[in-house]
Please model this.
Amino acid sequence: MSGAPSTITAKEASGLAARLRDPRVRGAVFQALVALGFVALVLFIANNTAANLAALGVSTGFDFLNQPAGFDISFSLISFEPTDTHMRVFTVGMINTLFVAALGIPAAMVLGLAMGILRLSPNWLVKRLVGIYIEIVRNVPLLLQIFFWQAVIWTLPPVRDSIALGNAVFLNKRALYLPKPAFEDGAGLVLLVAIVAIGLAFLAARWRRGRRAETGRAPYPWLVPALLMGLPLVAILAMGVPWTWEIPEAGRFNFSGGLQVPDTLVALWLGLVVYTAAFIAEIVRAGIQSVSKGQREAALASGLTQGQTMNLIILPQAVRVIVPPTTSQFLNLTKNSSLAVFIGYPDIVAVFAGTSLNQTGQAIEIIALSMLFYLVVSLSISLLMNWYNRATALVER
Amino acid sequence: MGSETGAINDKAPAIKMVGVHKWFGQFHVLKDINLEVEPAERIVICGPSGSGKSTLIRCINRLETHQQGQIFVEGVELTEDVKRIHTIRREVGMVFQHFNLFPHLTALENCTLALTRVRKMPKAEADKIGMEYLEMVRIPEQAQKYPGQLSGGQQQRVAIARALAMKPHIMLFDEPTSALDPEMIAEVLDVMVDLAESGMTMLVVTHEMGFAKQVANRMVFMDGGEIIEQAPPSEFFENPKNERTKLFLSQILNH
Model:
């Protein structure tokens, strides 16, 4: 083998050039370069920002959070006065954002699931109507839809001509007014009984599953609802209904007392739910259709009913396809709630990244805190949904 | 007559099809099908692809609906009546080309699902029956595995056990070995031979002519949606009458 020509000389084989041909070495070198560049960029931006802020005489740091805000917030679940601090504004904003997201996510899921299943209905009219809903809602910008719902609410009568429901519930273009319960002694006991009832219902459901495994039939189908509804009801009656209703009262210009749901919250909530549900409906439809036709046929052939086939075979498999993109929709709903700014619902962006920022001028701190808040919320939702997704994953070889 | 009450009558012919027609849109898939199957008879249906073989057996448990004619299963006529369809589906087991095991359930759970949910059987009893049939198809050791962890041949045997666990009177096989690797076909056919020897009424759509010669009482040849020829296997293979049958047999046997 002495005469075999080599294209690589001894010098090349040992030199730096040769080492750079090794993908591992090359990879390490490039990564080091990228890291170096990134650190340099961050240092430059930080330096530049600090210099500019100093030149402008803008104070930095988080001291402003303890200063009084000096403005009022139109809707808050916790008490808020203009003398409260910017920290309090931050808290109110977070609660308001979480509030509309927490009301929106379950509603969007339920509506989306229903629409997704109905989209596959054999009923021609139902299928078409749902199709029209989805196509319209998916293809119009969300902001426009929120304006639309706000406009719909504004067609409601003014305060003095409020629509009244039994002199307890009032609806006008400004808000929805509901009676607010004022709890008295014994209400805590009712709450305790309700919690115990939920625990008992869990146990009862487990017992029924066990009985089905043992005997083939689950006895007392009314047991779980009876425990859930019956026990608290008995406790309420036994305690002699331990609360009174604070009825909203019509004043000269507005109602006072009771529970006020502002028009902006309703418009934002409607917009978010109707919009997100359309996307979830498409995800649900795709999930159901992703389960092969053979699964349905095998289930029916072995004697299962249509309903059992859907609940025991199709949905458990569809869920795996539905969950990851639905997680994105939950995140979208939460983040899209920042469109609240445009109709004046006091979410975190409107009051904190809006009014507080304008008043203090501390953009970097406020935007960073707001971003941190959204990041924590979004990552928490993702974490929860990923955990659920893993728990239902298919076992593969 | 059983067909009036909707009750199963195991003295009646296992299956009786009278003048059955079916269309997929404009396409006439089944043309005037007349077929009678006695209990414990083993029928092998063959024919070129697209000849309506699968559609025919899928009509028997109403995975497909026929548009004309009558189908009786153990004396019960198949109609739109959901209750009758369920009665018939409980008595008719089916094995599919692509197994169609439920991937989110273990092999054993695949076998016991219908027992607990349709027959309302206690779980312990269903598990016992499920294990019996997994033993019959020779894979009791795979009971706790998921379909995704099994080979094609093993999956198809679980599918057979799943169908048998309901103790059906009639078994339908829709090309049970067509999706299998060659080395796995034998293990599935062996199980089917055992089943044939146990006296099960079987309708098998297959291209496995060796299996057909071994177990069939009767061969049914279909082409273009019609039954062209029916004969016992000896006669069917040695002395086919119809030109189309001869052509088909020469195509599948000469290589």
